[in-house]
Amino acid sequence: MAHNIARKQALTYLLGVCVPSSKQNAAKIRIQRADFDSYLSMYFTKYEFIYATDPQKLCKTGDTVLIQSLPQKLTRLITHKVVDVIYPLGDITDPITGKKVVVGRYREHIEEDAKLFGDLKSMYKYDEAPERGITAGKRDFTDKKTYIKYSDDPKDYDPYAVNP
After folding, report:
1. C-alpha span between 43 and 38 (Å, rounded)
2. Structure confidence by residue, pLDDT tens digits, 115-157
3. What is the pLDDT of residues 42-87, one digit of tens each?
């Protein structure tokens, strides 16, 4: 009788960073957790890797994404799905004000300081920067199909192969 009772499973949301993966239609997400050491009474950073289904290919390597647990496992490894890309790699936007942020300061404040004290030659020009995705096909191969390479033969060079 007990096995016929339907259990409610809480759908959990997690925030993580997309890392390179060899699985098709799935993203490998790095989740940061705090691990408590009772001897030192301190929390330490611990990373956990989760595979999430991404059929629309929303996320690319380096994006901060929101994932949700699936009610049932899709496969043995794929237990979550990608809900949304929170921050694409690169420019970070403050969710409250909607302004662009660099490290811990608003970009507008950095530009105002540059006007007051003079521009540096080494200062990065955000207005002249190309859009993300300009290196697709040249240096960025996240849109190509990859596979796991099991033998390391120097004659057989394939840039789309991933070493296990």
Report:
1. 9
2. 999 888 888 888 887 776 676 666 666 666 666 777 777 787 7
3. 999 999 999 999 989 888 888 999 999 999 999 999 999 999 998 8
CA distance 46 to 16: 13
Token pair in block for residue 37: 């050491």
Q: The tokens 């290919």 sit on which residue?
A: 57
Largest alpha-carbon pair distance within the chain?
Answer: 77
| SS3 track for the chain | CHHHCCCCCCCCEEEEEEECCCCCCEEEEEEEEEEEECCCCEEEEEEEEEEEECCCCCCCCCCEEEEEECCCCCCCCEEEEEEEEEECCCCEECCCCCCEEECCEEHHHHHHHHHHHCCCCCCCCCCCCCCCCCCECCCECCCCCCEECCCCCCCCCCCCEECC
pTM: 0.66
Q: Give the residue carrying structure tokens 């060079």.
A: 157
Q: Could you tell me the CA-to-CA distances from 8 to 11, 69, 72, 143 in Å, in that order?
A: 9, 13, 11, 37
